[in-house]
Structure to design on (642 residues):
């Protein structure tokens, strides 16, 4: 291998790639603009919808209760609920989303509660309709408050202190540092996302620099130069690795920025004081470097076989699922890094990244995963070089 | 100098089995000479030239180009040839000057030499006006000039042209044939393939007629006229190809 020639090819391919609108779109525009925009818009829409639903005064029909004016009066004065006259098809109206819930108050409710014998009211609502569920929650709150109110009245009537109802309080406190909370939430997500970004970032340049070159007729031009085919493919491969890593880094930065926003889909998380140790993220990136190398090499080897960009897409699109499956398995609880999973490509990196973000450093396993991924990556590079030296691949008709 | 000796290329094809695209071809081409490989589509012209340019390796036989063996010294062969065909396209996103610079670097030239050669070639081919324009934005004629500049940047002693005028309009084709003549007049060894009889008649010092992968006959136009007792190259070609069937 001639390093000078590799660098000449690499510099040219990098310049060429940075002038390609498709690559720029997948490498820079989508991660930097589309992701934050998407999450912020979804978050904004969700916030708007839930706040509107929360502000709504729920229309409720009451069945029965004619002989229990006390409870009815209390319910009428409960904020956020409006009682409308009962109609025979009340439950159908809940289904039709015309009203939100029906409260059934049995005969003699007031009498039985004041005499101490238990009464039983019921709430009919429509599960999966957010507004109906909100009405149910409000009604449950009403009945809880009303129950306490009755109990206090009873205690007061008997001359007993009302704090008997609440002899002590309990307070739960979080002792986990913010970074550990972050690790629990993002331990699986971050490696999963980086894996996907590494792959998608490598896809377009890998296809463009191989099948794209064949289609445009520049492959034969470059093959007439004295540069060895190995140098050509290594130069191209380095370009794809750069695209892959840059896409992953930009995507992460962009997601980090989106997450830190108070508004948007992750607004709740931002307010919880969650943090991720930057050193852990850097560690994960280091573990993912060999996987970016593996992706670049495999994608080049596969795309090189295709005669055109379109044909390359048909080979490479299904590969996304092959990459996503182990990455998803790695995020599942219970799937842990051990001496078996350490040898499964992609899954091992996903699991070791989870450990690093959680602040654990199983050095032997980390070395094994890094080493194995390097071995797989080397095999990928060897495959790409081999493909580039095959006449039947380069001149496939 | 190009010397091919018993050069053969066999491809394995799923449908047709083993295909002998080039079958024991031998010929010589001297410096200051244009050797024309004349043949129909699929006759084996492109495969022969690709073997000489070391893009494909021969199944058997040998060839020496500019004194180097096409198998053992492939990289040196490529460093001493300029290869031009309609299949060798340009990078759309590089400018004319960047293209020539890139190939200069690939040929191992230093930046001072590249700058000097680029200035010379751009002046000769009248390319200054579009030197900083991307190849995608160039007309066919301009692209041809950039391709020529790319093949000339390292001043190779051997030029290989594979149907270089295919698909070009009259003016662009004419500039290519003028360029081929200039190469010959400059003392370069030139081999060129075509299926256009008039082109071969006008340009070639010696002609080899190739059919079904075999070199059926070769000689100067005069030799061939005498041998086949016909004045028209097309008639000669039809007779030779017919005999070979």
């Amino acid at each position: 291998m001639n390093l000078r020639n590799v660098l000449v090819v690499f510099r040219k391919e990098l310049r060429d790639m940075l002038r390609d609108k498709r690559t720029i779109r997948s490498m820079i525009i989508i991660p930097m603009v589309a992701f934050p925009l998407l999450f912020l818009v979804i978050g904004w829409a969700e916030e708007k919808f839930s706040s509107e639903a929360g502000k709504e005064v729920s229309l409720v029909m009451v069945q029965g209760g004619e002989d229990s004016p006390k409870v009815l009066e209390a319910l009428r004065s409960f904020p956020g609920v409006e009682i409308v006259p009962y109609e025979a098809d009340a439950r159908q109206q809940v289904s039709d989303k015309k009203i939100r819930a029906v409260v059934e108050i049995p005969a003699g409710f007031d009498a039985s509660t004041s005499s101490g014998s238990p009464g039983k009211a019921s709430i009919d609502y429509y599960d999966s309709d957010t507004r109906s569920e909100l009405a149910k929650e409000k009604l449950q709150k009403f009945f809880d408050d009303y129950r306490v109110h009755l109990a206090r009245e009873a205690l007061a009537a008997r001359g007993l202190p009302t704090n008997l109802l609440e002899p002590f309080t309990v307070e739960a406190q979080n002792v986990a540092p913010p970074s550990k909370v972050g690790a629990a939430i993002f331990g699986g997500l971050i490696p999963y996302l980086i894996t996907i970004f590494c792959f998608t970032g490598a896809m377009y340049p890998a296809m463009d620099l191989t099948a794209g070159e064949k289609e445009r007729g520049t492959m034969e031009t470059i093959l007439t130069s004295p540069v060895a085919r190995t140098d050509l493919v290594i130069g191209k491969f380095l370009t794809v690795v750069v695209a892959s890593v840059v896409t992953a880094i930009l995507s992460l930065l962009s997601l980090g920025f989106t997450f830190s926003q108070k508004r948007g889909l992750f607004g709740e998380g931002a307010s919880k004081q969650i943090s991720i140790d930057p050193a852990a993220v850097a560690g994960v990136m280091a573990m993912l470097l060999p996987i970016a190398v593996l992706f670049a090499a495999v994608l080049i080897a596969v795309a090189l076989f295709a005669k055109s960009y379109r044909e390359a897409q048909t080979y490479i699109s299904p590969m996304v699922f092959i990459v996503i499956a182990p990455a998803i398995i790695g995020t599942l609880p219970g799937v842990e890094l051990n001496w078996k999973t350490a040898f499964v490509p992609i899954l091992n990196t996903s699991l070791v990244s989870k450990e690093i973000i959680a602040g654990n450093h199983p050095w032997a396993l980390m070395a094994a995963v890094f080493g194995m991924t390097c071995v797989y990556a080397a095999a990928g590079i060897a495959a790409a070089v081999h493909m580039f030296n095959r006449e039947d691949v380069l001149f496939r008709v | 100098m190009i010397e091919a000796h018993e050069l053969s290329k066999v491809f394995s094809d799923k449908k047709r089995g083993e295909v002998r695209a080039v079958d024991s071809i031998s010929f010589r081409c001297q410096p200051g000479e244009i050797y024309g490989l004349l043949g129909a589509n699929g006759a084996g012209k492109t495969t022969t030239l690709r073997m000489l340019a070391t893009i494909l390796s021969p199944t058997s036989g040998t060839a020496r180009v500019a004194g180097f063996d096409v198998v053992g010294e492939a990289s040196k062969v490529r460093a001493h040839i300029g290869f031009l065909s309609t299949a060798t396209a340009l990078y759309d996103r590089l400018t004319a000057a960047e293209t020539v610079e890139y190939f200069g670097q690939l040929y191992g030239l230093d930046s001072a030499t590249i700058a000097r050669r680029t200035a010379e070639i751009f002046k000769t081919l009248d390319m200054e006006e579009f030197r900083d324009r991307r190849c995608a934005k160039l007309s066919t004629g301009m692209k041809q000039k950039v391709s020529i500049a790319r093949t000339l940047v390292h001043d190779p002693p051997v030029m290989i042209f594979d149907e270089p005028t295919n698909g070009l309009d009259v003016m662009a084709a004419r500039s290519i044939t003028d360029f081929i003549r200039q190469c010959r007049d400059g003392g370069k060894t030139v081999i060129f393939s075509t299926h256009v009889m008039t082109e071969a008649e006008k340009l070639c010092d010696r002609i080899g007629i190739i059919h079904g992968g075999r070199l059926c006959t070769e000689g100067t136009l005069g030799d061939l006229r005498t041998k086949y007792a016909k004045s028209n190259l097309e008639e000669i070609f039809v007779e030779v190809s017919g005999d070979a069937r």
